[in-house]
Amino acid sequence: MTVAVARVRAKRVLPGFTLSLGTTLVYLAVIVLIPVVALVLKGAEIGPAGFWAIISSPRALAAFRVTFTAAAIATLINALYGLLMAWVLVRYDFPGKRILDALMDIPFALPTAVAGLSLTALYGPTGWFGAPLEAGGVKVVYTLAGIALAMAFTSIPFVVRTVQPVLEDLDPAMEQAALTLGAKPFTIFRRVIFPSILPAWLAGCTIALARSLGEFGAVVFIAGNLPFNTEIAALLAFIRLEEYDYTGASAIALALLLAALVLLAVSNLLQSWAMRHKGAAR
Amino acid sequence: MTHSRNPLLPRLLIALAVGLTLILVVAPLAYIFARALQEGWRVYAQNILDPATLHAIWLTTLVALIVVPVNLVFGIAAAWAIAKHRFPGRGVLMTVIEIPFSISPIIAGICYLLLYGRQGLLGPWLAEHDLQVMFALPGIVLVTLFVTAPFVAREVLPLMQAQGSEQEQAAVTLGASGWQIFRRVTLPNIRWALLYGVVLCTARAVGEFGGVSVVSGNIRGQTNTLPLHIELLFNDLNTSGAFAAASTLTLLALVALVLKALLEGRKEG
Each residue of A24-35: pLDDT tens digit? Predict the structure, then answer.
């Protein structure tokens, strides 16, 4: 015993390793891994042919089309808005900047159901924005635009918060050099700044897209949920569950999971590219 | 700076940023309170004090009271194991901890249903022992545990890694026990990050919707958490009731953001 303790001390190993690692592994197995394995097992049971039959059914295809289209629009909105916000928050000083910065976290802090409720009423026929829009003939609620809007809201922080730190770390010497050489501000942005933040920007967009594809809470309120028209994939999975069609629900869930994992892998690649970029710039 | 020669552009961009944020973020936020209080404070109070709403508030509080401490312990254990020790598979373990972030909550709900539901893998065994997990409190707690599992760990882990373990090793040499080291050396170093993780975990736990809606069964007055109750009121066309219920969660979110801003500066040191 004393020998063991002495050896541990000699190796300078901290106590509590078995307990903490054991707790971590058991907890992750029970809470995370086993449930995910249950879905994968269900997928194996369905088989590739069955999976394809469910995924390629007209209603599922329509749901995937709606989901991907709306998520793409939402990501495009956030790509531009997020870049603008990151730029303004890093480069300029103005009163209220800290509040503006804190506001970027609202979509994460606000429960998605609350966001969905508020957006639906806000853009509804009697809402602050909905009333003038509908007077002008533009309908947002219960359309693809509404779905995209809800997805855009819930994924606002991703692009801002991935671009912001990279922009902060940018070496000002390069810009100064470009300026001395007579480059115009826009040229400096396009040729010097943008290439440096490109990997982080793309990574942020990818995570935003992944999040939008799986968004449920905010979307169900505003979507109208009309099959073939405004029904998203996550909702179709939910409807299949309510019909006790666990196989149908699982196949759609697996397809969404695969899409999310691919996007996550892409975002990780982009982020490691960003790290290398950062290393090279210094 | 770069744009000092052209003062118009910064002003234009700032104005655009503020304007878009007002439309995209501030308006939906302000609208919640505007609608909740539209019919006056008396109606607002009535809506909040409605028995079904009160029950939903209680259930959501109960779930958070179970979930947050459990994930706090998990987060500390995971960070201690990964940051303070070297062992093969640390990278894999860190990836596994992040899994819940990349899985849509509704998919998480389906995973749990496939495991514990009537037709699920453990369904027959649970039925035999008369244990109800799905469409009951345990199911709601389990899914919320899944969704919020990474929050504390991901705040504490990088900090513990950055701080290294020299102080702890010194304490070992001085003969301190594991618990003493944790309480006297590690905890004071990570307390703000820990609190920060708890704030984020709580905010997420009380707001969880997709996963919970799969496993709760929406039984009015029984398994209806606050976010689910908002949907129920909305579908009942009780919009002012829905907004009143939503305003409580919004206030909580704002408190979480203020705490987050306060803790952000202190986290590192």
Answer: 999 999 999 999
